[in-house]
Amino acid sequence: MKVHLTTFNAKYIHTSMALRWLYVVNKDRFDLSFSEYTIKESVSVVADNILEGGYDVVGISVSIWNVKQSRELAKILKEQNPDIIIITGGPEVSYEPQFFINNWDVDYVVSGEGEFVLGQLLDALQKGNNLNIDSVSSKYNISYKTAQADITELIKFPSPYRLEFDNNERRNRITYFETSRGCPYFCQYCLSSLEKGVRYFPGEYIVENLKYLIDSDVKQIKFLDRTFNLNKKHTMTVFDFLIENHRPGLNCQFEIYADLLNDETIEYLNSKVPKNYFRFEIGIQSTHEPTNVAVKRNQNFSLLSSNIEKIMKGDVIDLHLDLIAGLPFETFDRFRKSFNDVFRLRAKEVQLGFLKLLRGTNLRRDALIYGYKFYNEAPYEIISGNDISEVELERIRDVEEALDKFWNSGRFASTMNFLFEGPYFDKYFDFFDEMGHYYKVKNLPRMGYQLEDLFNYLDQFLKSKGIDACDFLREDYYSNFKIRPTGYWSDDISKAERKKLLYTIGQDKDFLSKHNLTRKIIEKQTAINPLKDGGYLLTIFFGNKKQELVYF
């Protein structure tokens, strides 16, 4: 019996930890292989690839981002080979197995952590035994039990982090790593709230595998733990090991519950962690206490924000803060306050997401209570609710787009600092709201634009508000390049005039000698912009360094 496992990742750089665990636990008992694709690939081509393998059983890992592709793949496989057995697993199908058995072209649904359950199912299929297995659903039996794998047994198998399969591409992809499973919290919109307890991998197992990865050419390790810093001793074991074994070029990402940090830990991190080595993702979601109570999210925003500010003062750890629009009891104006509360911290990234009513979550079950209308297809985003209208949510989506372009991109650091310390001080939401509205009114392209276009759009918007940010925009634009750009953020002088001016300056021997320059540097490595009070600003590109000179 030939078995193949597969999934569709959101991007090529992503990898499936689930497939790797399923593979290492079951590969020695069955004729088993696995493959990964991306959601942009042709499902029919993927199906052809799998059918060519002549597999008897195909397992598909289904998550919220690949629901459409997974369903289509199962349908095509069954149409082309009605005898093929299709098993689905993953977070999307685990909590409503009957829906998928009744509506998809699949034979079995595995709920929960399937490493050992898959083996039981394959063994039964191979031997023709009774298929009444806990956490396995079929059209003859629906199981609502969600499997939890025994970690003490998991670690007896070959490491999923050391597969030869990954050696050639590890440096080009994200390596996902788990030191624990489960979540202690009960956020009603999150599937993790349905799991019971937190289970840890042994420290020795963790450090041995981390050492292997650090000694390889991996560039990014993303820890999958829902709350990495829940257990201080466990957390510090990993932090200590990573710091002692720091390798330049490696970045590690963690989901952190900032309320649990204390001054001792923060001081340790700020003094020991090499810059750009750690990145913390911190879910805040809302600063409205009635909202947090409704979704059972325990949070002390005063403590949380104080801890974040202390981390940011250390200037060694990048922070990514999350917000969710559309939560219960949070109106448009109250969400504006949550946004400003969080943005005021000035983290490197602020992710603005929208409430999704995931299958199996309590908030989906209580959708009618909060008047939620939501899309029936994944990712199940809400359309409106008792506290927020469809129009208001669309407006926030425009805010999200402006936020990503002009803040999260990191391309406008000087301009943003100027705006938020001046004209838009403490009016952060208003800026992104107005910028989003400007995009819509002017019908500006949201895709297919050049970098200089973004600078021009922002410049024109600010000028419409009577704000002159020319110097900051120019500084930001040139900071995006190591060599002189072929385009210019501003068309204040024509291309011909620019070329003529650079030629003229290149002939000025006194100027060249004074600044230790050559004609070639001026003509090939220098950008020129007119100054308001006369003369020209020369920006000379020397790789990562830039030199600015004024020429009259």
From TrEMBL:
Q: Does the keyword rRNA-binding apply?
A: no
Keyword entries, A-Z: Iron, Iron-sulfur, Metal-binding, S-adenosyl-L-methionine
List each copy of the B12-binding domain by range.
1-132
Record-linked Pfam families: B12-binding, DUF4080, Radical_SAM
Q: Which GO terms describe its molecular function?
A: 4 iron, 4 sulfur cluster binding; catalytic activity; cobalamin binding; metal ion binding
Q: Which residues form the Radical SAM core domain?
A: 169-411
Which cofactor is essential here?
[4Fe-4S] cluster
For the keyword Iron-sulfur, the answer is yes
A GO CC term assigned to this protein in UniProt: cytosol
Record-linked PANTHER family: ANAEROBIC MAGNESIUM-PROTOPORPHYRIN IX MONOMETHYL ESTER CYCLASE-RELATED (PTHR43409), SLR0320 PROTEIN (PTHR43409:SF16)
Name by which UniProt lists this protein: Uncharacterized protein
Q: Give the originating organism.
A: Fermentimonas caenicola
